[in-house]
Design brief:
single chain, about 260 residues, alpha/beta, five-stranded mixed β-sheet, 12 strands, globular
Length: about 260
């Protein structure tokens, strides 16, 4: 008896296992976890937020002076504009409002990631420029999905699971008319980049370029070199940013 039939039979019995392993690996990837987390937020919002009261946009890419910024979710309402950043993470989460980096502890492994409040700050500034609204009507919201546990005290706008719904609904004082909400929705629909693969690839390249602290940068307003500076006082003390070398004549700043 030859080995070929035996090998064929053995392969047939385990062939289903190979795509299963590939699927599990894909679902555990950073890309898949991000998309799954954003999909979960969409479902929560669909079930819990009235569509006519809270107009929503997802995966919004806007142009910025140093490239692009990508926003997970935007909810436009008479009660304000809510800018939501999603984190699909498990394990223990350690972090403070003023810390540049937060920590995820998963079993015996430790990972560092950017403070999501600071990450979302750039999203708020991009929306402020695009919509022309007062910063006090723009609200940053962070939600963690995936079974993580906060091990340090976090601000009220950092939530878990469906908690972002309660935070958004806590705002009950109207600040925009229905016409103003519709105008903001139109401005974002026309001002955003098309949600295509090409847009995403360009955004990823912009992120890589901005993270390269050795790369030379020019001020988009006056053309002078941008320098890395550090906030010395106030609630953002210790945070680094790109500042124009022409200061104080030019006060251009870009978040790292």
């Amino acid at each position: 008896m030859g080995f070929t039939p035996v090998i064929t039979q053995a392969w047939a019995s385990i062939a289903w296992f190979v795509p299963l392993i590939l699927l599990i690996s894909l679902l555990k990837s950073r890309w898949a976890k991000g998309h799954i987390g954003e999909f979960m937020v969409r479902l929560f919002a669909h079930w819990q937020l009235d569509k006519q009261t809270y107009r929503r946009l997802h995966n919004v890419t806007l142009d910025t002076p140093d490239g692009t910024t990508q926003i997970d979710h935007v909810f436009l309402s008479p009660y304000g504009v809510f800018v939501l950043e999603t984190k699909n993470m498990s394990g223990w989460i350690f972090g403070g409002e003023k810390q540049a980096q937060w920590t995820q502890k998963l079993y015996k492994r430790t990972f560092k990631f950017q403070n999501p409040l600071r990450q979302n700050y750039k999203h708020l500034k991009a929306l402020e420029a695009t919509l022309g609204v007062s910063p006090e009507h723009l609200h940053s919201v962070i939600t963690f999905v995936g079974g993580s546990t906060f091990k340090t005290e976090v601000p009220t706008n950092v939530t878990q699971g469906i908690g972002f719904i309660r935070y958004i609904k806590s705002f009950q004082q109207p600040v925009f008319s229905e016409a103003e909400v519709e105008a903001m929705l139109h401005a974002l629909q026309t001002g955003r980049r098309a949600p295509t693969l090409a847009t995403h690839r360009e955004h990823v390249q912009n992120l890589k370029r901005r993270s390269d602290l050795k790369a030379e940068r020019q001020c988009p307003k006056c053309g002078n070199p941008l320098l890395i500076r550090t906030v010395k006082s106030g609630p953002r003390a210790g945070q680094q940013f790109w500042g124009c070398s022409g200061f104080p004549k030019c006060r251009t700043m870009q978040i790292l």
